[in-house]
Amino acid sequence: xxxxxxxSATTSATVLEQADAERKQARRESWRLLRRRPGFIIxxxxxxxxxxxxxxEKRITPYDPFTxxxxxxxxxxxxxWFGTDKIGRDIxxxxxxxxxxxxVVAPPAAVLGVSxxxxxxMTMGYFRGRVDLVLSRxxxxxxxxxxxxxxxxxxxxxxxxxxxxxxxxxxxxVLVIYVVALLFTxxxxxxxxxxxxxxxxxxxxxxxxLRGESATFIMTREVLPNxxxxxxxxxxxxxxxxxxxxxxxxxxxxxxQRPSPDWGLAIxxxxxxxxxxxxxxxxxxxxAIATLxxxxxxxxxxxxxxYER
Amino acid sequence: MSTEPSPGVPYLPPRATAADRAAxxxxxxxDVDERRxxxxxxDLQVAYAVRGIDRIVLRGVSFSxxxxxxxxxxxxxxxxxSTTAYxxxxxxxxxxxxxxxxxxxxxxxxxxxDKEQLRRFRAEEASMVYQDPGSSLxxxxxxxxxxxxxxxxxxxxxxxxxxxxxxxxNRVQIADPARVMDRYPHQLSGGMLQRVVIAMALxxxxxxxxLDEPTTGLDATVEAEVLDLVRxxxxxxxxxxxxxxxxxxxxRSMCDRVxxxxxxxxxxxxxxxxxxxDPQHPYTVGLLRSLPRQGRRKGQHSLATxxxxxxxxxxxxxxxxxIDRCSLASDLCRSQEAPLVDLGGGRTTRCHHxxxxxxxxxxxxxxxxxxxxxxxxxxxxxxxxxxxxxxxxPALVGIDLSxxxxxxxxxxxxxxxxKSTLAKAILGVHAPDLGGEMTLDQHQLASRIGNRSTxxxxxMQIIFQNPDSALNASWTVRRILKRSVRxxxxxxxxxxxxxxxxxxxxxxxxxxxxDMKPSQLSGGLKQRVAIARAFAGDPRIVxxxxxxxxxxxxxxxAILNLLAELQSEQRTSxxxxxxxxxxxxxxxxxxxVMYLGRxxxxxxxxxxxxxxxHPYTEALLSAVPSVDGEPSTRIKLEGEIPSPANPPSxxxxxxxxxxxxxxxxNSIEPPIIEASLGHIIRCHIPAEQLRELQQxxxxx
Lengths: 309, 700
Prior knowledge:
The complex is a heterodimer of chains A (309) and B (700).
Chain A: H1 2-36, H2 38-56, H3 91-127, H4 129-143, H5 147-157, H6 162-167, H7 172-200, H8 203-210, H9 215-223, H10 228-251, H11 263-270, H12 280-307
Helix pairs in contact in A: 2-3, 2-12, 3-4, 3-7, 3-10, 3-12, 4-7, 5-7, 7-10, 8-9, 10-11, 10-12, 11-12
Chain B: H1 18-24, E1 39-50, E2 53-65, E3 70-74, H2 81-88, E4 96-105, E5 108-109, H3 115-124, E6 126-129, H4 133-136, H5 143-152, H6 158-171, H7 177-181, H8 190-201, E7 208-212, H9 220-237, E8 240-244, H10 248-254, E9 257-262, E10 265-271, H11 272-277, H12 282-289, H13 331-335, E11 340-344, E12 347-350, E13 375-388, E14 391-404, E15 408-412, H14 419-427, E16 437-440, E17 443-444, H15 454-459, E18 460-463, H16 467-470, H17 477-489, H18 493-506, H19 511-514, H20 523-534, E19 541-545, H21 553-570, E20 573-577, H22 581-587, E21 590-595, E22 598-604, H23 605-610, H24 615-623, E23 672-676, E24 679-682, H25 687-695
Helix pairs in contact in B: 5-6, 5-8, 6-8, 8-9, 9-24, 17-18, 17-20, 20-21
């Protein structure tokens, strides 16, 4: 018996080495598959471009985005590629600089929203029963409301109370992050709930309960790592939505305030001259939003496709 | 995809009907026509492309099946059985490719067929039945419509197709076919679904029927019925059958000839009875010896295991494929490919040393029998009722049991009998209904795990059926074991590291395994990790919920040996749930037979197998196809297992009982009779009378 098991151990060792190598190869394979997708490459190029703009801001803009440098409402030309706006600021510079506002607000909002949603979703999925019943109804009630309308309402009603000032560090951007995150929470919670329900009936969870683990331990240490993939996918998708939502709120005038070069705000400001045939103050920021959202979604789609392979 | 039939839709069409063919020749016995084989594989090689690299899976498989003959393929998972079956119909997955060899069906080489010829071949000549009938049928379409479609594809008119579909259901002996036609697949039981799938496969009256594990996952009693049906249909239609199964008993009871596969080669071939009674290849010998058979018990023998593991997919095996695991391996075996030796009588073996097979000694290790001590666990009047959509579903009804120190209690019964629910009630996962009582070492056990003391939690652990879902896929083995040690024993980090090392050593897990994740381990190793985890806190009782049913027989043997060893060293008591009566007989000291949440019979293993039996136990025992070919008179159970939500009156078993006494069994709950000391049967028929009835050949 012992002889038999000894030879069994050596054979299985080689088998395992092979398995280990194959696992590493599989990980490389995922990355290779990702790189092979044209969508992923294009999406990454777009996202990285806007990230660079956001980080370097004034250092790469040809003009100062905040001061009017020349005559107002100049059409696109060699000097001003995207023209100038109605108070004479260079639109090209403002579009590049505007990436910072949206990228400072949207990704943190998505991260916060996914975190909150994960917490709520895990609570619903793990405990089921009455907890799930009550939370699910609340989540559904929120899902029935249009995201932008609620955001508009909350942001325009948000006064200047000291409590609010304290939790937002007196920053409008932080307030927008909170609002967008809260708006995303119910959607994420539903996705996470479904993933947790699929996991919680697996035997490893029963086994953890049978050694007396607490619910918190089981949820955070046992279940969470196993539902990481759908959460990461959800996060990338939410970033795309967050960019769109943040820009919409700025456009409606309840997000980032003047004189920020934020794209939504710029579209809103350029809107009144559009009818006079001055199309450039609206078009270029709009294209910027479109490219960033498309870029993020291309990356998200590729990640999702590779994860769900 | 248009020319590739989706798996699960067996292909059809007319030509000679079964009746024509029956009239033309085949009578009660099947004529084995030797002239033109129904299926002939010639040196077939198949490779799967994995990440751009061809991995060879079949290394030259040759066999032939005569018309009307049943040929079985056996072997452990990964040996290429299913690939052979799929290749025989050229149904290989997209990355599979026939690299050389020929497949002749009725004389035609189907490897040369173009798409249209292939479509017609699959439509008219051959059919396949898959393992899981549930996934072979579309869940959103009524069974009748799917079955009618099988006939419509043959070009029949709607009314004709409908009539034929009904007739096909009659042919597979489904009760009330007209109603079955109107059901959705989820409304039918597994056995009924498999009958529907077989009816679809037979729609075209195929010359060749390929069955890939057709009864795996079905209960023994249902399995026996499906096998009976296949036997009857084979006699009726005269179709040649290729049967894939890992259960050697099934192959023996169904097939004329058998091929034993290992690593993509047939290593031994011959008449089924002869191969199983007198194996002539070291692998076949090992496979048969690893089975707990002929009433073997843990106290007498440990089971033989085959050392080593199956070569990895696509490994380079220039000489004998079995060389790494063979005890007869010589220099000759290492340098030359094993020759195909003709043993006469239609038997062949692929071995350099067939003359030495007789010298392969079976290790006669005897084990110390664990003396049974005091009662550890008592269960008195435990019931469990689930609430489902406003109805109460009694899953357990008044269970009384006890478990002694160092004892193994086997729990057997069909699925849905409440075995796992009982296990979970004992462990406190499902709190039982109020009124019952459980005691551990003479003190009362809280019904819920959350209310139990650390000592009580530590005392009872579980080993699950499926190690894949039982181990957290994102944890390393070390983390899994260490967490259990720390949580159960309260040891500090250093002590628990030491304990993990001891545990791993004990279960023959090498230290390198500890830093791997479960997905990197084989099924057998994963189950060892699960066992190590269960033993992390020196438990008093371990519940084993079908711990070996997901494993191959040679791995099963190693796990059963390990469980027996651990028990003899640590005096652990086991509650052992299994549907495999051979396994239960090997390991259990006492057995409880459950039906519909009630215990029908309890007794020592000898009592349960020796009789007198409860009529249900009798039926269970007779349903098991034996690899030893012992003649058994099958007792057929009528109907399906009733819903626990609406149990029959009187004795819950009476609607299916072949020995029921009308007027008594259907109205009065059966008394508990004590056939002998500690052997309890819940039946209206007195023990002596049961014994008499069961000694005379059963009537039906």
